[in-house]
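Worked Example 4.2. Consider the chain below.
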Amino acid sequence: MGLFTMPSLGSDMESGTLAEWLVAPGDTVARGDAVAVVETQKGAIEIECFEAGTVQELKAQPGQVLAVGAPVAVILAAGEAAPEPEAAPAPAPPPAAPAPAAAPSAVERAGVGAVRASPAARLRAAELGVDLGGLRGSGPGGAIVLADVEAGGGGGTGKPASRLDEMRKAIAAAMTRAKQTIPHFYLSQTMDVQDAIDLLAVRNSEAPPEERILLGAVLLRAAALAAQKAETLNGHYTDGAFQPAAQVNPGLAVALRGGGLVAPALEDAPSMPLRETMAAMRDLVSRARAGRLTGSEMTRGTLTVSSLGGTGGEVMAGVIFPPQVALIGIGAPQLRPWVAGGRIVPRTVVTVTVAADHRVSGGRQAARFLSEFETLVSQPEAL
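Applying the procedure from the previous section yields the following structure tokens:
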């Protein structure tokens, strides 16, 4: 019998609120299937099961706040029989008949309990101060679902949502602990990316908009490949020791609309060709901003890549996300006079900064990463 418990979705997570079940008793699940949606300070995250089997029992109800490790469900493995029920105690004598209840008031009849709505919709409505009675549902039987609340959230009369405030508090607390406990050091290098930009311009001129590749995909792929040559930057520091990762799963820092930040991971990014890398990035960003990330995406990162995009500051030095041991900060591209072919010419450059944990690595390893990164972006046709 497998006891499914509330997973940890980050080093700073202590508990989560069960928003809704995606399975019911009797359902068959496979390893990696999403079984529930959990609300955390980072938003709504789908949690997955790690064993195949049949859902025997749901031990928690939507709306419950559950500590990490608390029992959530029971999943029986294939061929495993359900445990015999315990003998029931002798029935107690029936209670005296209660007095007739008073008829509900008009306010009680019109309350939230009378509205058909999903648990996730009720939680979000409470955050936004939205009256569910004033919304039209698009779910089965006219039930109100999360999308209906999000669409009608602008008409709420209560206080604005506090999730982003809570997320900022969680980020601030995690980053404060990281700076206090991780001995950061930084190493930066400015490098020419004009060849990569020119190559993308040619490729994108013949591609539809949804298939065009951005410079960010080139930089993310270069970071993933370079991390294979600098193993002390790729892994986790736990229980007083460094555990190198078996593969490179770069976390992609995604700024959320209205504020906040998450860093879901691309699993085994070096195995993805450039076009697949771009598609995976689009998918992650879209689902991150819609609050539909999975638990494994939030926890399997082995280092983080944070880019300022097309505009912004020239240099970015970040704070490491524990238990990771490195963060790659990429400044916005800048047009600068540059020496190329013995001449000074205008070229587009970016500054890449490695923030690394000095308990695990030193300047030599960070310099090796930057050298490999520069080699890769100077030969973009090979990516």
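The CA atoms of residues 128 and 146 lie 12 Å apart. The two ends are 46 Å apart (CA to CA). Compare this with Example 4.1 before moving on.
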